Amino acid sequence: MRKSKVLLVEDDETVRKLINDFMTREGYEVLPFADAPEALEMVRMRGLPHIALIDLNLPTMHGFELASKLKAMADVPIIFVTSSGDTDTIVQGLKKYAEDFVVKPFQLRELEARVQVVLSRMPSLDYANEPIIHIDAHLKIDFAHNRILLDGKPISLTPTESILLHVLLRNSGRVVENRMLIARVWPGQDVYEDTLRVHMHRLRRKLEADSHHPHYIRTERGIGYMFTVKPPESFIQEQPVG
To answer: Which among 55, 76, 171, 191 is placed 20 to 30 Å from 49, CA to CA?
Structure first.
């Protein structure tokens, strides 16, 4: 099994090195960065991480803004690692972006335990963290650039469509209930199933040759949706197109 890929964005060099060294010893693949732009460029080149550890007070971009940019690509789980213990900040971060908050100073073993807990709640397929995901001979997905390639033709996705597709793909072969999709795609918002159906219809029109007879996304009426095509046992890793 592949190592879980951890995106670490922390401008304090000492803290970054401590987390990087400890998490690496614990068996994770850590991608450490001092600021957001370099981290985002890595994601675009190497694919999504399984989880992101983000400091709030970064040099050129607030941690919430970085989280927003990652969440516009896919449903990347995030833990904020920060010196800010302000309740309003923590509540805002948890409602909109994060699975958890770790306030400095902290024990490294505690941080790793929280990472484990988050990852245990998130179904993860190794192939889903490559730059270009090969679903079958017709469909490829490039989450970092919000697009699919259908028979070689690039088709743009909205951030909402990209997140929907990522949640379904991560749960491939299992029905994802409507309430779960709404919670992951629109965290902290009052969204109803009619809104979900509209966005799912738009996604299907881009993804399916015949949206009335879908091949990839099946509906379980009154329950939810399921991504039904299993990935190939092996695939070729590519760099993002364009």
So the answer is: 191
Asked whether the beta carbons of 157 and 69 are under 8 A apart, the reply is no
Range of the domain at 81: 5-122
Asked if residue 180 and residue 94 are part of one domain, the reply reads no
Between CA 240 and CA 67 the distance in angstroms is: 21
Distance of CA 50 to the CA centre of its chain: 7
Strand order in the sheet with 217-220: 176-177, 224-227, 217-220
Q: Is the pLDDT of residue 1 over 70?
A: no
List phi, psi (to 5°) of 55: -75, 150
Helices (H), the chain: 13-25, 36-46, 63-71, 87-96, 108-121, 159-170, 178-185, 193-207
**125: pLDDT confidence band, cut at 50, 70 and 90?**
low
Query: Cis before residue 159, ω within 30 degrees of 0?
Result: no
Query: In whole numbers, what is the pLDDT of the chain averaged over residues?
Result: 89
pTM for the complete prediction?
0.88
Q: Is 53 exposed, middle or buried (0-12, 13-18, 19+ CB in 10 A)?
A: buried
Longest distance between any two alpha carbons in the chain, whole Å: 55
Q: Please say whether the beta carbons of 54 and 63 come within 8 A.
A: yes
CATH of residue 117's domain is 3.40.50.2300
pLDDT at 230: 55
Dihedral over alpha carbons 83, 88, 89, 92 (to 10 degrees):
150
Q: Which of 88, 122, 156 is the last residue of a domain?
A: 122
